[in-house]
Design a protein that fits this description.
InterPro entries: IstA-like_C. It comes from Sporosarcina contaminans. This is Transposase for insertion sequence element IS21-like C-terminal domain-containing protein. Helix content is 12%, strand content 25%. The chain has a domain of 69 residues. The chain has 2 helices and 7 strands, in the order βββββββαα. The termini are far apart. The chain has 126 residues and is an alpha+beta fold.
Length: 126
């Protein structure tokens, strides 16, 4: 006979709903866990696994997984949850659409410079 009190024979899932804050965290048992930025302001489903992990789901798929934190008032953050967030350096670099920058391997082309007086003269009809 196998003892019954060691581990559940099947995974017991108790689902809870949490709202994702503006800073992309949910609160669970007085700890904070990061969520991908696109879910800010939305509700997500949360549950603990038998392996000591916290899984977060939207309506269809798992969007994040974190190890459960011991204690209270702690925080765990996955930096990938903030990649592509509007206003971040990565997002600004992405918006250049292939333009050369001082940091890019593509050399910056030289551009002819001329006096603005030439444009003023053209505007006056000279």
């Amino acid at each position: 006979m196998i003892p019954w009190n060691t581990k559940p024979l099947y995974q017991v899932r108790q689902w809870e709903l949490r709202e994702v804050s503006k800073d992309c965290f949910i609160s669970y048992q007085q700890n904070k866990y990061s969520v991908p930025y696109r879910y800010a302001g939305q509700q997500v489903k949360v549950h603990e696994t038998n392996e000591g992990m916290l899984e977060l789901y939207d309506e269809y798929e798992r969007i994040a997984v974190h190890p459960l934190l011991d204690g209270r008032h702690q925080m765990t953050m996955n930096s990938e949850h903030y990649q592509g967030l509007p206003g971040t350096k990565k997002e600004q670099d992405k918006n250049l659409h292939g333009l050369a920058t001082p940091d890019s391997p593509t050399p910056i082309p030289t551009v002819e410079s001329r006096s603005l007086a030439i444009y003023a003269a053209l505007e006056e009809g000279e």
